[in-house]
């Protein structure tokens, strides 16, 4: 063991990725992104359209319940300013404000509204909690200026892609106020 043997520690040879290998990985990632990203954006549109259908179903149910409890009267058809309530609605007959008051406040059989309910006079409603929902496509429809109210009884067919809601106090019909088409080619106002 007297030998002078030298042991050299050899470093393993480090190997790096080549430019070609890196380019191949980047190309594969780009192809995957091109496939996946459109599916996510499609899912967003589908979710918005499903939310639109859900909002319309809720609003239509509220309108029909109001109609059933108030005889032949639809929300917004009568002024919401009458009655003996100290904090009553402010909507004139046929206005967007009257529509909102009718659904968001307590009401009597004649359609007069009040912020406080009781068991004798203001015993109906509220039919919608907190606020009228916005249409999920444009985000409009939760305030008075974004609700178009008519009183013709005719089928509502919006002429523009305005957004928000279009409502008729004679028929109780409510639709999205838009003639734009959805992802399946149907007009939003036909949802």
Features:
191 residues; alpha+beta; three-stranded mixed β-sheet; two-stranded antiparallel sheet; 2 helices; 31% helix; elongated
Provide an overview of this structure:
The protein is an alpha+beta fold and 191 residues long. It has one domain (47-190). It is 31% helix and 8% strand. It contains 2 helices and 5 strands; from the N terminus they run ααβββββ. The strands form 2 sheets. A 3-stranded mixed sheet has the order 3-4-5, with helices on one face. Strands 1-2 form a two-stranded antiparallel ribbon. The protein is elongated.
Q: Helix and strand layout, with pairings?
A:
Layout: H1 19-69, H2 96-104, E1 106-107, E2 113-114, E3 147-150, E4 165-168, E5 174-176
Parallel strand pairs: 3-4
Antiparallel strand pairs: 1-2, 4-5
Beta fraction of the residues? 5-15%
List the strand order in the largest sheet.
Answer: 3-4-5
Tell the overall outline.
Answer: elongated
Q: What integer value in Å does the Rg equal? A: 31 Å
N-to-C SSE string, H for helix and E for strand: HHEEEEE
Distance between the termini: 94 Å
- How many distinct domains? 1
Total strands: 5
Helix content: 25-40%
Low-confidence stretches: none
What's this model, at a glance?
This protein has 191 residues and is α+β, with helices and mostly antiparallel strands.
């Amino acid at each position: 063991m007297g030998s002078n043997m030298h042991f050299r520690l050899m470093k393993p040879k480090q190997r790096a990725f080549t430019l070609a290998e890196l380019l191949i990985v980047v190309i594969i990632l780009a192809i995957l992104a091109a496939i996946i990203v459109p599916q996510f954006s499609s899912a967003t549109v589908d979710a918005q359209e499903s939310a639109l259908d859900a909002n319309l179903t809720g609003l239509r149910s509220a309108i029909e319940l109001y109609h059933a409890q108030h005889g032949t009267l639809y929300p917004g058809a009568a002024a919401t300013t009458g009655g003996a309530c100290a904090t009553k609605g402010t909507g004139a007959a046929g206005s967007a404000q009257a529509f909102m008051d009718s659904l968001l406040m307590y009401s009597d059989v004649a359609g007069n509204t009040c912020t406080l309910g009781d068991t004798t006079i203001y015993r109906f409603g509220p039919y919608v909690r907190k606020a009228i929902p916005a249409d999920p496509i444009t985000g409009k429809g939760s305030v008075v200026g974004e609700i178009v109210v008519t009183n013709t009884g005719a089928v509502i067919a919006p002429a523009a892609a305005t957004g928000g809601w279009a409502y008729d106090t004679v028929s109780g019909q409510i639709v999205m106020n838009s003639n734009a088409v959805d992802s399946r080619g149907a007009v939003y106002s036909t949802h």
